[in-house]
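Structure ticket #2291
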Amino acid sequence: MARKGRGRKDALVDAAVAIRRKAYAPYSGFKVGAALRAQDGSIHTGCNVENAAYQGTCAESGAIAAMIAAGGKRITEVVVSGAGRIPCTPCGGCRQRIREFAKLDIPIRVVNERGKRMGTWSLGELLPASFGPENIK
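Resolution: structure written out below.
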């Protein structure tokens, strides 16, 4: 189990790992789970869903949709659970989607399928010189 701080369980990591198991990836075999914490402390999850036309949805997009459906407006933290030795950071499109609802300094943590930490980046590090809602007036 992933741990954080003074031996407490890390609910965000646990949620990302658990939802990854539910991903639908029959074509690539690459399952991804994402969990985000909204400004009110609630946790929302999503997993990737592939289809035969190769126009599936990303785990991060699903988690954002779940947050919005629950009435959330701001993301304060994200955890992405992938597999393998290379960290599975959000794709470019999902980085921009996260940017719509988050500040550039939020942490995006990446863990493997067992919850082992593989790295942490700020959204600003993953999406430098970004364009956000404040740029549209």
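Closing remark: The CA atoms of residues 62 and 135 lie 25 Å apart.
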